[in-house]
Amino acid sequence: SDKELQQLVCENRKALGSSLFLPGHHYQRDEVIRFADVTGDSLQLARQSAARPEADVIIFLGVHFMAETADILTPDRQRVILPDLRAGCSMADMADDRQCEEAWRQLTDRYGDTILPVTYVNSSAAVKAFVGRHGGTTVTSSNAEQVMAWAYSQKKRVLFLPDQHLGRNTAYKGGMSREKMAVWDPIRAELVPDQPGAALDDAELLLWKGHCSVHENFRMEHIQQFRSEEPDRQILVHPECTWEVTQAADLAGSTSYIINQIQQAAPGTKWAIGTEMNLVQRLAAEYPEQSIVSLNPDMCPCLTMNRIDLPHLAWVLDEVSSGKIVHEIRVPEDIAADAGLAIERMMSLTS
Ligand code: 13P
Ligand code: SF4
């Protein structure tokens, strides 16, 4: 039963003490996040994992790319466990290193040495390594503006992987017109203007054609419905949502930004939030004096985040307690070294 599983988790955690570190992303289920040592967005969790040298084992309550980043950043490459290995990220899966090399070949043929690659941390270690090898950096939704400004101080053009929406929204906010953007389709291996008729020669932002299947489900029709039925409800969305939705919303920002907005709001404030279901539901429960609903009535869970559940957590903890490492995430040395360059570059820009 759940009660027995919870008891098992509590006992094993206590027995392992500070040799175990349990970071948890805000999109995780209630049934596991309640056991996390720290909760945070992807940047906060990466920093926290690096700052726990006393932990021999990190059980990551999040998705595969986050566990890879924890493995890369832990000074002695502590053992990192992902309770369910099927907890991937459909966005990260939209770019692989072979596709990156092909894009780089074609894009540098066209634009020469004017491009810096930048990847959202929601990408595989192999893609981060490609970026690190070419002098680029990682970025998260909470530091995207700052890191993009640095990227443009280095080169005239940025290749932004793998989320076209975060790339487009960030550059537009920084003052770039959509005429200066183009989209790289990794399946067709071709570049098309973001706005019909715009000249590819003028493009300064080359957006990888990837997206988050959760955040793309917040659509203009949802905003229009709230605007007509409840005009006093504020629309607050994550920048993984499309450009149209982000523009039409009242506010847009990273997971931490969304949480800060709610924390600072007055009782009685009404919100419709465009981000993952577990976070929206948790905020609604924690701030009952405000009115918090999902922007999409279907709620929009991230199926892979939700794969980390209480039975998986209880099982891996039990194995660790008996000295066994299961479901380990281990990035090969050479990839970890190059990916580490890209992550460290971001860290040094934003510390
Ligand atoms: P952040 O935690 O950086 O806001 O990322 C959101 C997300 O989609 C994580 O998978
Ligand atoms: Fe990936 Fe989107 Fe899920 Fe985040 S919410 S893990 S970007 S699919």
Automatic annotation (TrEMBL):
Domain of life, per lineage: Bacteria
Q: Where in the cell is it found?
A: Cytoplasm
Cofactor(s) required for function per UniProt? [4Fe-4S] cluster
EC number assigned by the record: 2.5.1.72
Q: Name one GO molecular function term.
A: metal ion binding
Where does this protein hold iminosuccinate?
A: 25, 42, 120-122, 141, 238-240, 255
Question: Which reaction(s) does the protein catalyse, per the Swiss-Prot or TrEMBL entry?
Answer: iminosuccinate + dihydroxyacetone phosphate = quinolinate + phosphate + 2 H2O + H(+)
Q: Which pathway does the UniProt entry assign to this protein?
A: Cofactor biosynthesis; NAD(+) biosynthesis; quinolinate from iminoaspartate: step 1/1
Ordered alphabetically, the record's keywords are: 4Fe-4S, Cytoplasm, Iron, Iron-sulfur, Metal-binding, Pyridine nucleotide biosynthesis, Transferase
Which purpose does this protein serve, as stated in its record?
A: Catalyzes the condensation of iminoaspartate with dihydroxyacetone phosphate to form quinolinate.
Please state which protein family the record places this protein in: Belongs to the quinolinate synthase family. Type 3 subfamily.
What is the protein name stated in its UniProt record?
Answer: Quinolinate synthase
What is the organism of origin for this protein? Alkalicoccus luteus
Q: Which gene encodes it?
A: nadA
